[in-house]
Amino acid sequence: MQTKRRHVVAAGLGLASASILDSSAIAGALRAAAAPGTPVQSLFDSTRTLCFGRYALEAPRDTEQVFGEQTIDAFFERYPASRYPDAASLLRAKWQEIVQQARGMPAGLAPGMLGPIVRGPVSGASYLWLYKGRDDYERGGDCNLYGAIRVGATVHLFRGVAGASEHIGRDQALRDMTDLMRGMRAWDGRSVPRQPGVCMRGVFIEEASNRFQEIMSSGFYFPSLPDVSFSVLSNKNASVDGENGSGLLERVEQARAEQPRYPYRFLRRGKRTLHRLWDGEEVLARRADGVLEFDWELVGRPGDPARPSWFEIGLRTGVAHNQVGAATTRSLRDEQAVVLWDRLLENLKFRVAVPGATAESVALR
Fold first, then answer.
1. What does the alpha-carbon distance between residue 308 and residue 223 come to, in Å, rounded to a whole number?
2. Which of 79, 143, 148, 77 lies closest to 115 in space, CA to CA?
3. Residues in Cβ contact with 282 at an 8 Å cutoff, skipping those fewer than 6 apart
4. What is the model's pTM?
5. Domains of the chain, with CATH numbers?
6. Cβ–Cβ contacts within 10 Å for residue 138, how many?
7. Contact (Cβ atoms closer than 8 angstroms) between residue 249 and residue 334
8. What is the DSSP letter of 117?
9. Which residue, 68, 72, 214, 292, has fewest beta-carbon neighbours within 10 Å?
10. Which residues contact 249 (CB under 8 A, 6 or more apart)?
11. What b/e readout covers 272-299, taking b as 16+ CB neighbours within 10 angstroms?
């Protein structure tokens, strides 16, 4: 279903005609789809482990992975070294960009509010302080710390924050960024790191403290099932206050109450716990045009590495050109899609243990 996490339920979530399959019907469908030789089962005859953030997915060997949002600490970007040969050149470009944006803004920044570019202490790294406003600059208040480092053929740009309102001092912000940079190494995605840390596009960051904000997402596509996509998003420190704390089932019921006519039916919905740890909720729905929209969500605890604030998994069929419903053919029957969904959810785990993880939730032990 098309959902907008942590918002009043979007139009795609209200499933008016609640045709829920009973347990015997589900069991029969699963047995039929799991018969030897079906496309879904044969997909997993040969698998490989794909990593993102602190997670690992055992997926069919030909699965294609596309990294989505990747944030550690406050901000993270990457640029090819062919564009910026070293960290200092990237920071100079960022400096010029900010100055250009600030020109003609009397209450905003001025070029002098940007500190000098400083090298080190990590080899290949450079830093730049940027105050958030004129008063902060004059009083040494809130500011951003930009840091860049080249790893392999890529220059990575971090941004941290410091100041009284951020509850972190400049020295601590610099230590945090330095720790992340020291833990970085080039990573091509083919190996599965065995150390604690996060897998990101082109780089692995060894990090065992779990103290940083982390937003990690990834999409997965299957050449044998060209209209099917699978995606995961984990946001460790997001707010769960107010509407942000409402679960998937609650939002579905709200949408059904607000939208009495909606061309969806349920294949399955209810509570679902994964690996005796992630006590989430799932809704498996079919649109009138045959597109399947499967969702599982967990509302966790901010800052908890084992149960992140927002943890969302989705599967869509009928996908073409990155648009749901655009495909002209369907690769899976409903019952086959349910089998694929169940297998992928069971195969999604932490790559290595994090504090609070169960044994069942860890891929490498």
1. 31
2. 143
3. 248, 268, 269, 270, 272, 294, 295, 296, 297
4. 0.85
5. 11-69+213-355 (3.40.1000.10), 74-184 (no CATH)
6. 10
7. no
8. P
9. 68
10. 269, 270, 271, 281, 283
11. bebbebbebbbbbbbbeeebbbbbbbbb
